[in-house]
Design a protein that fits this description.
The chain has 256 residues and is mainly α. The chain folds into 2 domains: 1-7 and 44-150, Serine Threonine Protein Phosphatase 5, Tetratricopeptide repeat (Alpha Horseshoe), CATH 1.25.40.10; 151-256, Serine Threonine Protein Phosphatase 5, Tetratricopeptide repeat. Helix content is 74%, strand content 0%. The chain is built from 11 helices and no strands. The radius of gyration is 20 Å and the shape is globular. The two termini are 24 Å apart.
Length: 256
Amino acid sequence: MPPTRNLSIFGAIVFSLLGATAGFGAANGSLAEADSLLNSPALSMTQAARALSLYQGRLAAAADRALVLARLGHTCFLLGQLVPEAQAMQYYQQGQSYAETLIREEPHRVEGHYWLALHLCGQADVGGKFLGRRLLPRILEELQGAVALNAAYDQAGAHRVLGRIYYEAPGWPLSVGDLAKSRQHLQAAVQLSPATSTNHLYLAQTLFRLNETKLARQELEQVLKSTRAAVKPQDLEEDRQEARRLMTGMEGGEAG
């Protein structure tokens, strides 16, 4: 999370003046339709696949090529999250290709570095511990680059993912796990995107592990007040359920 999904080959398209005008109008409509699909409250694999197809169709003639590449990277990541695990690697690899293309063409845009890091995280998740260890240095490098370019992008996504890596990874000398760094990045994520439930949930879990139970509970309460989740729209309710479970565990003397 290894067969590689074949990427579409976008040839040059020649328009007449009238045909070009109609074509760009249709392309704008396709972009809006794809965006609308990804914003569905109950985003499905079918909707995400349709959005991917629309973005791919837009890429060939796009004046805003960087924007479309970023959306392709995002959509491939969503598909990697939505499909059965056995199918996820192909979307993460496809998304990696789009992200690397964006980095080559626009190296100072945050989107390429951020989505590359997330697709490598996805590959590490489904590919096992050995692959994860091999990919980790590049993941950290790309996330740190994304923070430097635009720390607020994707609801403070680079800070959120860095914070989670430092929370989940074993500590030195086995790996990079560091609860102080996790707290630092997740506090930054909460400050930059306070409406995002996942930012508060991850910070609460780090604080609980640091024995900061009172502060952890405050963050869990913020999860219940948040209006959006980090990845899919339906994840908001899942974050709220996890926050309630952790708060109940705290009352019973255990959480995590």
